[in-house]
Amino acid sequence: MNVNVNAHSWTQEALRSAPFSVERIGRHLGAQIHGLDLTKPLDAATFRALEAALIENKVIFARAQHLTTAQHVSLSAMFGELEVHPFRPEGEFPQIMLLDNGEHNPVLSTDVWHSDTTFRERPTKYTILRSQIMPKTGGDTLWCDMEAVYANLSAPLRKMLDGLQARHDFQNFRALFTQSEEDRQRLRRMEDLYPNPSHPVIRTHPVTGRKCLYVNPQFTLFIEGLRRDESRALLDLLFAQTRTPEYQFRHRWSEGDIVFWDNQSTQHYAANDYYPDRRRMERTAVIGDKPV
Fold it and tell me: Which residues are catalytic?
């Protein structure tokens, strides 16, 4: 396991010389970036400070950043190799996942607590989401600090969970496939590409070394080594922790906002309370490490 035990030393140093300010909004997570124009290229020191702000605050956002799609992709690629989401058609920018929902395209499953793509061996590290068209009301996104969740579990429960593994699956996306022979073949190909990886129930952050709860109701199937009824009861208890408001940060979007978050230590939930109004977002995601 490659953990940077001196994470705070470099992040704090980078932030001290940052050419922008960071305003903490949430008690456990969430901060606003002021004084940074993300439509312009970032030099190495500024980018390092931006990533440091993300690591320290878990969720960061900047208002009125009207990036083009090409600028969004270019900025995101500074954080690492970008994902091409397997359950969306490729376009001019295959790294972009379009989330355009409204009366004729209802939300599939973003209104469930989750960390992105834990059905992969190497799930998402960071997600960068940019708003383009927003409803007059509704459409907020909520995040939960899974490090705070872990820290507030009882010591005996934390001890029991350490070392356990859970199986994950792209179960929500299975609804996209019909019973046609063509779709059954497509589904089998997806199952071959993503064969139910096993991830630790308690994950250690690869930079900070802090532990967090790493199971989610969207993708986690069961905890290995337990009877199915035991696994279900324990997962239901763990899933319920994200509903605690004290662990949450909620963002009310405006057009042009861009939000960066750390999937290694958070889960998120996109409120589906704007139907039939339209909400259009563009998302990129950085490929992460295998969880340990």
Answer: 114, 116, 268, 283
